[in-house]
Design goal:
The protein is α+β, with helices and mostly antiparallel strands and 190 residues long. It has a single domain, classed as Aminopeptidase (3-Layer(aba) Sandwich), CATH 3.40.630.30. Helix content is 28%, strand content 34%. The protein has an eight-stranded mixed sheet with strand order 1-2-3-4-5-6-8-7, with helices on both faces. Helix 1 crosses helix 3. The longest helix has 14 residues. The radius of gyration is 16 Å and the shape is globular. The model has no long low-confidence stretch (mean pLDDT 96). Bound molecules: coenzyme A.
Length: 190
């Protein structure tokens, strides 16, 4: 079976209670750069803080990928409905098509942390992943000190499956990462 199937309907945009998850537009540059340039936002990331050129390259990549459907990786911006400001992004990437397995990642501007936006966006992506997309397993990785990131995973019922020792270098520092995952049959139970 080819996965994702050629006749797959796009599973986005997704509107949640407070957010719109949608494809990026060229005019989103300033909002995206506003968080990509921040030390607190990129603390656990292997990228950043971005120069304007780096953000431009990332955004151009997101715009270019929109020409391809179905595609293995989907990057969506997270727009706050109340302000129409892009406050972050979320990604779902098929890592193993034969086993219908994807991983997920997300980033939010620190202005909006601790409001439940991360959980709201990730829940919506998991609903799409196990609904229209028909995935079997979604996993995500988070630095062991990135409590906000694995806090989202725990709230969504993802299980900590492993802790990888010094598997990633962040600005020259080897970091430990938790691997969390959830299966389709587990997600329907929460
Ligand atoms: C990780 C991130 C997306 C979290 O987003 P968020 O919208 O603040 O997360 P939520 O508000 O949904 O929080 C979910 C849970 O995580 C935990 N949590 C979140 N931030 C926390 C913090 N700073 N300290 C302790 N616990 C935290 C809490 O349990 C929280 O639930 P609660 O508020 O009901 O107690 C955000 O901090 C971020 O963008 N960080 C920078 C980028 C990044 O590290 N991305 C992840 C890479 S793996």
């Amino acid at each position: 079976m080819v996965f994702p199937p050629d006749d797959l309907e796009p599973w986005f945009p997704i509107e949640t209670e407070r957010l719109m998850l949608r494809e990026a537009r060229p005019e989103d540059f300033d909002d995206i750069h506003a968080y990509a340039v921040r030390d607190d936002v990129v603390r656990f990331m292997i990228w950043g803080p971005n120069t304007a050129e780096e953000t431009r390259t990332v955004l151009d990549g997101w715009l270019d990928e929109q020409a391809l459907w179905p595609r293995p990786g989907v990057n969506l911006v997270i727009e706050e409905l109340a302000t129409e400001r892009v406050v972050g992004s979320i990604r779902l990437t098929i890592q193993d098509a034969a086993n219908r397995t994807a991983d997920m990642g997300y980033t939010l501007h620190s202005d909006v942390w601790r409001r439940g936006y991360g959980t709201e966006a990730a829940r919506a992506v998991l609903q799409a992943a196990f609904g229209p997309l028909g995935l079997h397993r979604v996993f995500a990785m988070a630095d062991t000190d990135n409590v906000g990131s694995w806090g989202i995973m725990e709230k969504l019922g993802m299980r900590r499956e492993a802790t990888l020792r010094k598997n990633r270098q962040v600005r020259g520092d080897w970091r430990d990462n938790h691997v969390y995952a959830i299966l389709a049959e587990e997600f329907t139970r929460i």
